[in-house]
Amino acid sequence: MKVKNIVFATANPNKLKEIKSAINSFEIVGLKDLKITEEIPETGDTLKKNALQKAKYIYDKTGLDCFSDDTGLEIEALNYQPGVYSAMYAGPDCNAENNMQKVLQELGETPNRAAQFKTVIALVLQGKEYFFEGVVKGEILKEKTGKGGFGYDPIFRPIGYKESFAEMSIAQKNEISHRGLAVKKLITFLAEF
Ligand code: IMP
């Protein structure tokens, strides 16, 4: 059976854009298209729990097949933090800018800059749950570099590349990124479903 319409349960327009550009064979429906504007609860202590919580919330509300992702930046020298708490790392007034500043401050001159982005996608399809994971290893730069992307992109450079994620096009980033890799697994699964 071919699955044609799938809801991507995210309020992040950048993520929706990235995923729409990675998936051609299915119609990806955003929450805005469904006029769902409320904040979806995200109270888990792991990426997997959060991804499932968001996908199930929308599935239970609409009955539509749905997937959601949760992403964390894991920094070795910071005991793999901020991890699942990446979105609110800088505290109550957090945003991409002060989250990055906090990472740079915490790391200081630490020579170990090793880090990875991890994405877990949870898919609720005909009531069943499936999970897909993507990881990209890299390093935290000493300063912000590049103007594209979002979140922590300006301070993350994947292994084997000269550019930060913020210096790459969406297509380039999708090729190698945590979310791109998880999405490829999702696409393969859906194509064979
Ligand atoms: P979320 O839970 O997946 O929405 O993301 C958690 C945090 O990681 C947020 O601060 C996002 O801005 C950040 N983040 C998620 N995906 C990426 C990415 O691809 N690049 C940089 N930062 C990201």
Query: What is the CA-CA span between the terminal residues?
Result: 6 Å
Number of strands: 7
Write the H/E string, N to C: EHEHEEHEEEHH
Strand content: 25-35%
- What are the low-pLDDT stretches, counting only 5+ consecutive residues below 50? none
Overall SS class: alpha/beta
CATH topology: Maf protein
Q: Which molecules are bound besides the chains?
A: inosinic acid
Helix content: 25-40%
Helix run count? 5
CA-atom Rg in angstroms: 17 Å
Name of the CATH first level: Alpha Beta
CATH level-two architecture = Alpha-Beta Complex
Shape: globular
The total number of structural domains is: 1
The overall average pLDDT, rounded, is 93
How many strands, which pairing sense, and closed or not: the largest β-sheet?
7 strands, mixed
Describe the structure.
The protein is an alpha/beta fold and 193 residues long. It has a single domain, classed as Maf protein (Alpha-Beta Complex). The protein is 31% helix and 25% strand. It has 5 helices and 7 strands. Strands 1, 2, 3, 4, 5, 6 and 7 form a 7-stranded mixed beta sheet that branches. The longest helix is centred in the N-terminal third of the chain and has 16 residues, at 47-62. The mean pLDDT is 93. Bound molecules: inosinic acid (IMP). The site of inosinic acid has 17 residues, from β3 and α3.
